[in-house]
Amino acid sequence: MSFGQDLAYHLPFLRRYARALTGSQTVGDRLVKHTLAAIVADPTSFPTGIDPRLGLYAAFLSNWQDQDGDELVDQSDGDERIARRRLSRITPRPRQALLLTEMEGFTSEDAAYLMGSDRAEVEALVAEALAEIERQTHARVLIIEDEPIIAMDIETMVRDLGHDVCAIATTHDEAVAAARLHRPTLVLADVQLADASCGIEAVKDILTDFHVPTIFITAFPERLLTGDRPEPAFLITKPFQRSTVKAAIAQALFFDDATVPA
């Protein structure tokens, strides 16, 4: 494989990194093109004696300068735009360290090389970035669950994850009233409630008042995942694992536009 072909293989991944780093596809692609133009203009400037992928990222970072203001806000639609808005609010070096290690899969040592740092600092920067994401996605949670033991279990998990539980409701009417009173930023809802009503209907009524991301909990997911009608974006199956709840909450909050800091 030629040098050019070797670099070409890694370009889609570099574009992904550049877009996440800058928060903009336009800005990221422009920086990648600038990097390639610099390599073509002066091939001797390309790092030697290291893995070509590592060298390519090093060349890119040497050309990268912070963007600010509106350039950091991706203009695309949907979940990806929301995620990039969150990333853009992490200061540059922690964002670099997080993306290089968690998204691009570089080791802490390789990330340290790319950032002109050392392993300890990279690990500290990653921890800082993760803490900022957790701060951004802190939630006030409404639990809609009619089984007391399960409700207590969910409440403990939610609090252990660093979120607040604003209320626990067991019926449709209680859920709607609690939502209107507390304005939660996340709802965890059982599908079947104590008054024989449906948790989905309770959430629908809540959503007529305001937007809030929702995770549904059910022992019978096959009844909801039929493909015949709109399905819940986030669904946990009973009995559930703590890791499942944690992952669902993280996803629901990270991709929710209402909880992105202004």
UniProtKB/TrEMBL annotation:
It holds the Pfam family PhyR_sigma2. One of its GO terms (biological process) is phosphorelay signal transduction system. The keyword Signal does not apply. Keywords: Phosphoprotein. NCBIfam families: PRK09191.1 (NF006623). InterPro entries: CheY-like_superfamily, PhyR_sigma2, PhyR_sigma4, RNA_pol_sigma_r3/r4-like, Sig_resp-reg_PhyR, Sig_transdc_resp-reg_receiver. It comes from Sphingomonas montanisoli. This is Response regulator. It comes from the Bacteria. Residues 140-253 form the Response regulatory domain. The modification 4-aspartylphosphate is found at residue 190.
